[in-house]
Amino acid sequence: xxxxxxxxxxxxxxxxxxxxxxxxxxxxxxxxxxxxxxxxxxxxxxxxxxxxxxxxxxxxxxxxxxxxxxxxxxxxxxxxxxxxxxxxxxxxxxxxxxxxxxxxxxxxxxxxxxxxxxxxxxxxxxxxxxxxxxxxxxxxxxxxxxxxxxxxxxxxxxxxxxxxxxxxxxxxxxxxxxxxxxxxxxxxxxxxxxxxxxxxxxxxxxxxxxxxxxxxxxxxxxxxxxxxxxxxxxxxxxxxxxxxxxxxxxxxxxxxxxxxxxxxxxxxxxxxxxxxxxxxxxxxxxxxxxxxxxxxxxxxxxxxxxxxxxxxxxxxxxxxxxxxxxxxxxxxxxxxxxxxxxx
Length: 343
Known about the structure:
single chain; 343 residues; alpha/beta; 11 helices; 12 strands; elongated; disordered N terminus
């Protein structure tokens, strides 16, 4: 009997131990399995790269080059797969690039429009494909604002106003007419339209301030030089004086400076020069006394663009209009500010 009870006790103990062991393994296996599945899901979500298609205007200026570098560097830093296209300042190239991005089923499309109008058709194609669009630097002239999610960039009208306000103050004690020549940006582009509008809005407060010549320089240094040469020739033929140059960007201003110097005219002295953007070359020219004031337009918007793209993909609400921080730099700030220029 003792032998039977002893055997039974051993058997019972063995079965109990097996059950405990089995429960332990089941519980452990369940927890491990749950953790593994959750980890895989989180990993999948984290590892999925956002693909951003970006159609750039071109490489027409130092500002644009800095803008491109900021976008490319920021995309890499943010872990975003950037598909980049250079439109070489042609709208048809940008439209082609946007359609290519749609065909590739990118997550987000961003672009800086060459001109304001003519975008509704391709933007509707993006909307129908369920691909959100972000405008950068420049706006589009469309009544249907649902065609884009957000517009990141400067207030070009305000930049023009700032240039005008500086000139009003600078010329407040000047007697007689002030002849202004204007180098406009690319015809039909948002900055060219808006910077002209803002400037003219302000200078009309002083009837002595008049724009006597205005022509596009396409935002390039070479074209700025060419147009300024024509202005100089015309002024000599008409025996008139040019008092102020208002250039819609630094590269045109720098081209104009070269033309002025070749004609024996001292830029910044014989003719006051107002320039917009704020590239390093322009600050150097201002330090050298050749530019009188620079109204800043900040090109380093890459980090903001990447964050907007991430927020949109994550389903977060983003502001329709997002501004960049900018300032006005008169000549006496040039030496101090020059080392801070990153572009």
